[in-house]
Every structure is written in C-alpha cells, then in structure tokens.
Amino acid sequence: MPVVAEPEQESEAQLEARFEAVINRKDRVEPRDWMPDAYRRTLVRQVAQHAHSEIIGMQPEGAWIGRAPSLRRKAILLAKVQDEAGHGLYLYSAAETLGVSRQELTEMLISGRQKYSSIFNYPTLSYADVGTIGWLVDGAAICNQVPLCRTSFGPYGRAMIRICKEESFHQRQGYELLMTMMRGTDEQRAMVQESVDRFWWPSLMMFGPPDDESPNTARSMAWGVKTHTNDELRQRFVDMTVPQAKALGVTLPDPELVWNEERGAHDFGQPDWDEFWDVVKGNGPCNAQRVAHRKKAWDDGAWVREAALAFAAGDGSDTSSDTSSDTSDGPRTA
Amino acid sequence: MTSEIRGEWPLYEVFVRGKRGLNHVHVGSLHAPDDQLALRHARDVYTRRNEGVSIWVVRSSAITASSPDEKDPLFAPSGDKVYRHPTFYDIPADVPHM
Ligand SMILES: [Fe+2]
Ligand SMILES: [Fe+2]
C-alpha cells in the first residue's frame, strides 16, 4: 500500500449534514453537489412532469392556430405556443443536470411512466377556450411557479425565473381575448361563460390534491423544493381570480364561493377529486390523444434527428463555406 | 452528464451577452447536432425577446469544471483573503465618494 495520504473521503453522514446545512440556510443545491437519492428522484419526477406539461400543453391551444379569427390573434397564439415549447426545453435541460437524458425523458412521457398536468387532458371545444386557458390555466401556473423561482435546486429555480418572465404575456393575452368577446354579441358572451364553466374546476385541480391527501408535500417543503402547500396556492389563486371574473362579467361556477370576512379570504367548493384521480390514471377525455400525438411527432422526427447527426459526422466542409459569423463574437466563430 | 447515448444530439451550453458592455452569461443548455444548429436553436430557445446581442455555444463535454462546491481547495486561497474586498476597510461614514 502506498504511504501517500489519501484525501479524506467524506462519510455519507458528513455529506448529508452538508446538504442539510445548504437547505437550512436557504442556499441552492447545484447539480454537482452531493444530494440524497430521494431528493434527486423527487426533483427528476417534478421537473420532468413540469417539462412534459409545457410540451403537451402546446396541443390544446395549438389546435386553434389555424382557426384563429384574425392575423393578430394568430400571431399572438403562435408566439404563446412557441413560448410553451421554450418552457419545456428550459425544464428538460434543468432535469438533465440531475443525470437523466433528454431521450429517456421523452420516452418516459410517451410510455406513460411519467405524468403531465391533468389540465391538458381536457379538450378545447371553442375558440373562447384559448382565452380561458390563458387567463385561468396560465394564471394558475403563475401561482404555482412564482414561489418555485426560490426552489432549492438551482437549475430548476433559474428555469422558473425565465418562465415566469414570459407567463404574464400569456395570461394577459387570454384575458384580453375574453374581454373582447365579452364586448361582442350575446352569443360570444355565452361562449365565454360556457368555456369558463368547463375550465374552472380543472384549473383548481392544477394545484394538486388537498394537503391531507398529498403525502409528499411535507418532505418537499422540508427540502425547500416546494415552499407552499397545494391548498395555500389554490386559495391564493381563487382570491386573485374572483375580482378578475367580476371585471370580466363572468360567473365562476361554484355556488359555495363566498367572501369570508373573518378569514379575509374566499370560501369555495372542492373540485371533484374522483374525476381528478381518474384523469391522472389516464381516463380523461384526451389522455390517449395527447400522448399519441407526442409519440407521432417523436417517431416522425426520427429521420431528421438521424440525418442531422449523419451530416454533422461528415467532414464539415459544408459549414466552412458558411460566411455568416454575425451571431457570435466568441473566440471561435462557428 | 449522460449525453450521446443512442444517437442523441450532443449537449451544448449557451452563453448570451445581454447587451453591449456586458459579459456573456450562461443561460442554459440545449441539444444540437452541430455548432451551427446549436447557435440557431440557442437563438430560438433563449433569445425570443431580444434577450441578447451575441450568443456563444460550446459543447458541454468541452468544459472543464472545478469540483462541486466552494468548499473546494481551488477557492480556498481567496477564501481567507478578505482584504481583497472593499468592505474589509473601515472608512469613516463622512468621507464622501468612497
Ligand atoms: Fe409555460
Ligand atoms: Fe404559459
């Protein structure tokens, strides 16, 4: 045995203590830090599910791009759906820092081993749904995402900051769309109300099951992954949305919804949690369609991915003739 | 970390100069088959709202990193040289422009 002193290996307990110390002083955990396996697993699951939601979430709205009623609305919707693609990509790259590959993540989505938000398993039946999704679904997403900017895992928090900067456009374009329709005909107003009636309860479900049925919440909060409980965020969303609904002139379809002076907050009814679990299990109106669509895009794109790699593996003589160097002032312009 | 498995496009790190006068700052990563496409993807993914005037992309595998955290010996030499920071020096509050 060599006599050279080996650098002292830290014991599991020391590593764990150091990790806990980072969490306790509300510092960030970075990818190359030691972290408990359960923390890593929880984050992979949460960040992947979040990424998948952004990607699958392009479908219900994307369905209306070709049918948008004006060029202005079409341009807005295109930009919004493109943003959601970007959100998915930010989050996939955050998930990858935890040691999963992009390909594995896509395969887990397609095979149903990882989930996405159940809201996207509801269909968009009318153009008003584009507005309602922007207002309520992106609105609920904002409530969820703003606190996540301070989540304990660095890459996840940074992705959330980028996303939150873009979300307010999403919510405002939706609300403005609905306002425009509310200034229109009785028929248009009825379309808005009907759409809000369909999306209200699924939007409340976006915050996840009630706290007493959410066994992982306590641990996620102890780790600083989550900073608020599902019910806290749901309450915040309801309180924010009620005055917006009033200004819009629509009724939220909950007979129990009432201001509670004592609590300084609204009381409201519970979504149908049986429906929620049923949709999570795969039995929502669009689950099969959403995943099939994603799988088709993945399969249809396979030849493009392969061809691009084959091209890149060539001698590269094609790229050297490219004279455009204005996009980079780096040490080496590609 | 795990890249180039089963024909996956390689991973690139993306750096964006927000505006003239600022350094390029790491903004995230993406997959691309080659450098040119990495630049184009970086433009679409990270600068949809004029977030940058210049982009660098570099293969993640080409980056050499110090080890995990700031407890690392690499940073130790500066850790005990607090006199490198302006707050090390007590200056009376009524001295202006310090
Ligand atoms: Fe999004
Ligand atoms: Fe959004």
TrEMBL record, chain A:
| UniProt key word Amino-acid biosynthesis | no
Its EC number(s): 1.14.13.149
Please give the superkingdom of this protein's source.
Bacteria
Q: Which Pfam families match?
A: PaaA_PaaC (PF05138)
Q: Where is the composition biased (Low complexity)?
A: 314-334
Sorted keywords for this record are: Oxidoreductase
The record, for InterPro entries, names: Aromatic_CoA_ox/epox, Ferritin-like, Ferritin-like_SF, PaaA, PaaA_PaaC
Instruction: Note down the stretches annotated as region Disordered.
Output: 313-334
The top EC class is oxidoreductase
Q: Which Gene3D superfamilies is this protein grouped with?
A: 1.20.1260.10
Single GO MF descriptor: phenylacetyl-CoA 1,2-epoxidase activity
Q: Please name the NCBIfam families in this protein's record.
A: PA_CoA_Oxy1 (TIGR02156)
Cited PANTHER family: 1,2-PHENYLACETYL-COA EPOXIDASE, SUBUNIT A (PTHR30458:SF2), PHENYLACETIC ACID DEGRADATION PROTEIN PAA (PTHR30458)
Name of this protein: Ring-1,2-phenylacetyl-CoA epoxidase subunit PaaA
User: What species is this protein from?
Assistant: Promicromonospora iranensis
Automatic annotation (TrEMBL), chain B:
Q: Which InterPro entries match?
A: PaaB (IPR009359), PaaB_sf (IPR038693)
Q: Which domain of life is it from?
A: Bacteria
Gene3D superfamilies tied to this protein: Phenylacetic acid degradation B
Q: What Pfam families is this protein classified in?
A: PaaB
**Would you tell me the protein name for this molecule?**
Ring-1,2-phenylacetyl-CoA epoxidase subunit PaaB
Q: Which organism is it from?
A: Promicromonospora iranensis
